Amino acid sequence: MSGAAMTGTGLWGWIALACALAFVTKFLGYSLPQRWLHSPRMTQVAACLTVALLASLTVMNTLAGGTRLVFDARLAALAVAAAALWLRLPFLLVVILGALAAALVRWWF
Question: Is 68 helix (H, G, I), strand (E, B) or coil?
Fold first, then answer.
């Protein structure tokens, strides 16, 4: 068997393992007692995890360039959008201002 075929087979094994882990995680979630899920502490933890996940995805999509950090127009767009959100501007305007900031930085540099 060639190295390329071996790599593909290994990849499918990892995909199958990830699917199995996702299934087991979901199954375990259904087996938790209801009182655990409806406690105020669990609600707070779930809310914090949601915000943390969204923040990490935003940072990764803004600063990642392969395996290195990249400071480009995406960072300017994020800064302008964050300022617009802080000013409580409508969401559509936040998106438009972020896109404009990215376009201007790309045009300028």
Answer: strand
Structural tokens at position 105: 């930085």
Task: Please provide the DSSP assignment of 70-102 as one string.
Answer: --SHHHHHHHHHHHHHHTT--HHHHHHHHHHHH
Contacts with 93 (C-beta within 8 Å, 6 or more apart), sequence order: 84
pLDDT in tens, 12-40: 999 999 999 999 999 998 888 888 888 89
Distances, alpha carbon 102 to alpha carbons 4, 38, 94, in Å: 40, 42, 12
For 67-80, what is each residue's pLDDT tens digit? 899 999 999 999 99
pTM score over 0.70: no
Euclidean distance between CA atoms 104 and 98, whole angstroms:
10
Identify whether the C-beta of residue 106 lies closer than 8 Å to the C-beta of residue 73.
Answer: yes
